[in-house]
């Protein structure tokens, strides 16, 4: 479900709940893409890529995602970022805490498109970025995330 994203800056796209987002039409966009070079996809197609990446996260972790807003923006404020986690990691929270603003995971479309050589690579890169940022949500620092990514890439091959 998309919500008003005016408070997050334009051209952000924000999901409050990503579970209801359909992603079936990305296959059609992929089928239409024949050339090499950096793929440029519409905002809706990129949103679908992010949704597919979220669905690739194991269910046992998806169930634990609470009070998280996922935002897709065209470009980062700082060059070189593919994604950004902002919030208080799950491992630093207490059951005695009261209301807290949602954590925020931002995925940047432009850098992904420039780095990917084709749509398959774009989809894989988005998936890796979403996984990386969710790992931060679960309390992993950058070094632990990098080690886990290396183990994960060996396991997925």
Structure characterization notes:
The structure is a single chain. This protein has a 4-stranded mixed β-sheet. It is built from 6 helices and 4 strands, in the order βαααβββααα. The chain has helices at 26-32, 43-56, 59-62, 109-115, 119-137, 142-156, and strands at residues 13-15, 68-73, 83-86, 103-108. It is globular. The protein has 157 residues and is of the alpha+beta class. The chain has one domain (6-156): 2-Layer Sandwich (Zincin-like). Helix 2 (43-56) packs across helix 5 (119-137) and helix 5 crosses helix 6.
Characteristics:
157 residues, Zincin-like, four-stranded mixed beta sheet, 6 helices, 42% helix, disordered N terminus
Instruction: Name the helix and strand elements from N-terminus to C-terminus, one letter apiece.
Output: EHHHEEEHHH
The span between the termini is 34 Å
Q: Which band does the percent of strand residues land in?
A: 5-15%
Number of domains: 1
CATH architecture: 2-Layer Sandwich
Query: Could you say which structural class the secondary elements and strand pairing correspond to?
Result: alpha+beta
Q: What is the 3D form?
A: globular
Poorly predicted regions: 1-35
How helix-rich are the residues, as a percent range?
Answer: 40-55%
Number of strands: 4
CATH classification class: Alpha Beta
> What name does the CATH topology carry?
Zincin-like
The average pLDDT is 78
